[in-house]
Amino acid sequence: MTFFSPLEQFELVVYIPFIVDSFFDFSFTNSALAIFLSFISTVILIKAVGKGFVVPSRWQSILEEFYLIVFGIIQNVLSRKHAVKFFPIVLTFAIVIFICNLLGMAPYSFAITSHLVVTIFLALTIFIPITFLGIRTHKIRFWGFFLPAGCPLLLVPLLVPIELVVYCFRVISLSVRLFANIMAGHILLKVLAGFAWGMFQGSDIFLFGLHIVPVFVVFGLFGLELGVAFIQTYVWTMLLCIYLNDAINLH
To answer: How big is the CA angle at 188 (ends 185 and 191), to the nearest 5 degrees?
Structure first.
């Protein structure tokens, strides 16, 4: 009977090695392939929709519904003026994360959003510009964001570092939530699939007959994971809009 580690699916596999020195490794891995496939999938989806028609096609209807969901999130958190302004960048992040989550569900694929370094990079990509947006918009008043209103002067040296750490933890809030949910779901699917395969290979007739039970559970969890892929995209988009609102209005 053969057992596989549920963590094998997260290992980096080098397809084309290209190491410059001990600090720079530009090798083409399964992670790079997943990013490339995500980009290609996004382009294909946009091309399938085309310029849009009065009577939408099936793909156009799906993409329009996705647009409406993202725009609705932005409009509920920000004003309509800011929603129109920041819609392209928020939509881009939503599409990228959603496509990466979906591709990670394909058999023998690589779930790129299950790697913390990837989600932290995505979080920093938006966290740093949002911080500069707040500084550019409010100048010196932006630093008042780290000082609660009515705070006694004696508590300033204590509260300002705490508020600064809490603000920086927004990167963790964005990245770890996505990474942990995607990784946990894939591990659970792998464990149950391996359990079913072990029962199927076993010599016990009773276990052989029952191996279909975890198979059905895997199919049910697969549907649940598809929902998690969408929910995590929704949560990421919502948090991104909240952080944008904080930078614009200093709330």
So the answer is: 150
Q: Structural domain boundaries of the chain?
A: 8-249
DSSP H stretches of helix in 9-115: 30-49, 58-77, 80-103
Chain segment 219-244, per-residue pLDDT in tens: 787 888 888 888 989 999 999 998 88
Q: Report residue 28: phi and psi, to 5°.
A: -85, 115
Q: Which of these, 37, 180, 179, 31, lies nearest to 110 by C-alpha position? A: 31
Return the ∠ at Cα 107 (arms to 104 and 113), rounded to 5°. 15
Length reported for the chain: 251
Phi, psi of 19 (to 5 degrees): -105, 120
Q: What is the pTM of this model?
A: 0.82
By CB atoms closer than 10 A (0-12, 13-18, 19+), residue 227 is exposed
Which residue shows structure tokens 């630093």? Answer: 143
Both tokens of 50, joined, read 């085309």
- How far apart CA 224 and CA 188 sit, in angstroms, is 11
Provide the residue type at 128 as one letter.
I
* Contact status, residue 90 vs residue 70, Cβ threshold 8 Å: yes
Q: Quick one: DSSP state of residue 54?
A: S
The residues pairing with 25 across neighbouring beta strands, listed in sequence order, are: 19
Give the whole-angstrom CA distance, residue 4 versus residue 83: 47
DSSP state of 110: -
Tell me the pLDDT tens digit for each residue of 191-205.
Answer: 777 777 676 666 666
Q: What's the rounded Cα separation, in Å, for the pair 199 and 222?
A: 20
